[in-house]
Design a protein that fits this description.
The complex is a heterodimer.
Chain A lengths: L4 H8 L9 H6 L1 H30 L5 H11 L4 H12 L3 H25 L3 H9 L4 H31 L1 H5 L5 H10 L3 H27 L3 H15 L7 H9 L13 H30 L6 H16 L2 H12 L3 H25 L3 H9 L4 H12 L1 H22 L6 H11 L3 H29 L8
Chain B lengths: L1 H16 L7 E5 L7 H6 L1 H11 L3 E4 L4 H10 L4 E4 L1 H11 L2 E6 L7 E6 L14 E4 L5 H13 L4 H4 L1 E4 L3 H10 L4 E5 H9 L8 E6 L7 E4 L5 H12 L7 H6 L5 E3 L6 H9 L4
Parallel strand pairs in B: 1-2, 1-3, 6-7, 6-8
Antiparallel strand pairs in B: 3-10, 4-10, 4-11, 5-8, 5-9
The chains are: A mainly alpha, B alpha/beta.
Amino acid sequence: MTPGWESALSQLRQFYPPDLSPQYLKALVVPLLETLQIAAAATFLVIVFGLLLSLYVGARLPGARLLYALMTCVRAVPDLTLAIFCVIMFGLGKAAGMVALTIFYTAATGKVFADLFASADPGPVEALQSTGGGRVAVALVGLLPLRLNDLLTYGAYQLESVVRAATIVGAVGAGGLGTELYGAIINYEYPRAGTLILILVMVVAVVDRLAWLVRRYPKFLLVLAVVGVASVLMNRPHMVPLAYAIGRFRSMLPPQAPDHLERVPGLVGETLLMAFGGTLLATILAVPLGVAAARNLSPVFVYFPARRFLEFLRSVPEVAWGLVLMGVAGLGPKIGILALGLHSAGSLGKLFAESLENVPPEPVLAMTATGGSRIAITSFAHLPLAFAPMVVHSLFRLEWNMRAAAVVGMISAGGIGQALFNAQQLFHYREMVWYLIVTWALVMLTDAINTRVRKHWRVSEVIVR
Amino acid sequence: MTRRISILAAALVLTAGLHAQNKPLRVGMIPDAGATAASVSEKAPLQAYLTKALGRDVELIIPTNYNATVEALGNGSLDFAYLGGLTFVKAHAQFGVVPLVQRSSDLQFHSLFITGTSSSIHSLKDLKGRNFAFGDINSTSGHLMPFSELKQAGIDADTDLHFRYTGSHPATAKAVESGAVDAGALDETVYNSMIADGKLDKTKVRVFYTSKPFVDYVWVARKDIDSATQEKLTQAFTRLKEGQDDEILKILRGKSFVRANNQEYDALRAVAQQLKML
């Protein structure tokens, strides 16, 4: 018996009204502070390390290519698997969560920063080189200032992601809002989940404001840096059992193929289905939502609610969407598609809106001068002009979803991710590493396709616009 | 101006973190009944009781993940832990953890198979082709034993059922209650306490099969913990009496505690090995 639409709707209705009882709100103060603290700490480390690594790559120092490949590799590891590695390395607790978030987002950010440096205007950089400046000097005085604005924008975007990603911190024994949301949803405490989503939306909105502040008043960064350093100190690891960890990691090698090798192609198929299906669904939803949320295309009474709706979609992590949908719509990869689709629609919608806002004004003005209607101008000027960046955003999302498809595996949505997660849970670590390699290959493949398409469209930096 | 705000912010954050310098004993619990702030605060009396009994600060930690709890016993970031039967068997095999104490009910533990009141499922055989919920993959009463009982009844979960892992016992109960799955298997004490507390609607769910008894949950010590401290924790539990420590016993969903030993788990170990879950 799969519950019908009616019972699905009646379940979803339970999210409203949210549980705003004083006891519950009081119980959430600590998780909220924990989330903010860990997010501040992780973001600080991510930006510092991401900047150092990407400058290293940007300056083409020895081993730069290897480092770049390594960052791509790390990004393929699902965060919960990283979290377990960190527990082995740093012990159970907030530190392990913080380090896991830092490693993952450093790899992600480092790669984006490196791509940004690679696409920096070559003129000034070559001029600097001709003065005989060393590679490091050129990177510091040339690349860094050229890209400062984009770096700040992307840094703020990372903070938002980290706030949401703090779910994994709960997996290793610290609380946080993500954990609360996960717990509330698996226990069908939907009014409480409603409260948590509300808080997450507010946090995301505040982070958005902070990002704006930093761009406007870069000095404000100093305040954030101080909070970041303090948070890192408070969450620093209390133990580093290095010899033990090395022995433990060694026991995970060599990778071992699973018993039922014949099931693997089917699992890969499910993962591909979720990643492609989810991205397609997100793109279809994000085009109208993006138009509605673009400040230059829609009136305030449309773009304001549209933006809040997009924030709502993306403030619920994929796994949490998956759990809600599982409660109302059954099992299997279709849950994965819907979960990835809804969350990604929130991210893509925002990026699409920004791409539409950033179109060069001249062609639009020309269209307007011909007396075209609003719809015509949007359809024939804005959308085609923003097409290339929108394609690139969608492709980045596809790459992201390839990884996220592995993450939703942990809630039985299927695919290679579920096999990986089950192997990890059962301590079949050598098998887990084998599945990790498969996931990594999938992410690398998507990455390679991405690079191709980006070269074809000659756009590389739009991700941060 | 900016500098002044920075200093203020730093001072605020640092003072918040400068308490509890002496090293507390760290006690981990698998998330058998949820790991949210509400469920952690519900366990505050237990934490207070253990602090008093052990004469040291005790920190209760409930990771959402069984895997992490066991790994933490390996590298020493947990000193004691509350584990399920299967997680104990694994932690013992990997890290030699010492079984200390358990509820008397843990020696004769059961899994309950539940379904919707009006469903047509009345025996394990009726489950063929249906949607089914296990709890956590590492749960004894929510996965290992139900899986084994199904197999004995001629149902291979891998091929005959559409199943998923809900991640916890309450989640399984709720998934059955809401109709998201046709049936599920879970810990009997969690089921009974949810019915008693009104967290589960007894007009919507019914038990259609009770498993054969097996040995389940146990409190363990990391192998390097000195025996005096081990003994203190053991006695803290064996001392608990109905009528006198009801608040603590309710949190632990038990009536009395007995000493545990490794041999009790031989049968369970054999099942786990046979199903390749060890």
